[in-house]
Amino acid sequence: MTSQNENISIGLLVESNTHNLFLRNSLLDPLALNYLIFMTYLTLIIGERFYFYKMEEENVILVDKFDVQIGLMPKMEAHEKALLHRAFSVFIMNDKGETMIQQRAGHKYHSPLLWTNTCCSHQRDGESNIQAGKRRLKEEMGFETELKELFSFIYKAPFDNGLTEHELDHVMIGHYNGEPHINPEEVASWKWMKPSEIKQDMLTSPEKYTAWFKIIFDKFYNHISQYNTAI
């Protein structure tokens, strides 16, 4: 057993089933430190490339201004070319009249860690708007509930990375009182806020929210205020 006055060498415990490294002592020798840095870097690179590969393989539905399907295109290409495609946005509210909003995961290719509506994504070929909304709500937030469509509209939002969201967006609403079980690959955090609080916070801190949420929320807020939408 080494004494406190002696130099302490570090041991690395490698579990083959998880590839997790655990530090047994308090100091790292140079070789062990370099290995740990390399493996961490390699894991991040592989994960990033797989994420973008999946995104490139995922098709979006190209539409005209009347929402008539005119073709399919890989998601990344559609965003690079700013072509109009079909999308949806889901708003979940509870009995208190609060809206569930989510903070996007930090590795998202655009708008990471910004706050936005409960969930949003793109319909798959042959999938209805409601089917798509329910699917993505389960994938991102981990729960299911009934949805109904409120309205649709077209918007265009360019990003600093050269990509552009140009969507015919179908806005849906649903009701839920429990806590979500968020998917950390998609969502960093979540919270309930009253629509009036969101509206005020957007005015004072617009940089906290996604570009499309600021556009969509304004229309959503006016809609529920004007029509007192039943959930």
Automatic annotation (TrEMBL):
Q: Does the keyword Signal apply?
A: no
Q: Which residues form the Nudix hydrolase domain?
A: 83-215
GO function term, MF aspect, one: isopentenyl-diphosphate delta-isomerase activity
Q: Look up the EC number in the record and give it.
A: 5.3.3.2
Q: Which UniProt keywords apply?
A: Cytoplasm, Isomerase, Isoprene biosynthesis, Magnesium, Manganese, Membrane, Metal-binding, Transmembrane, Transmembrane helix
Superkingdom assignment: Bacteria
- What's one GO-annotated cellular component? cytoplasm
* InterPro entries in the cross-refs: Idi_bact (IPR056375), IsopentenylPP_isomerase_typ1 (IPR011876), NUDIX_hydrolase-like_dom_sf (IPR015797), NUDIX_hydrolase_dom (IPR000086)
By sequence similarity, the record places it as follows: Belongs to the IPP isomerase type 1 family.
> What name goes with this protein?
Isopentenyl-diphosphate delta-isomerase
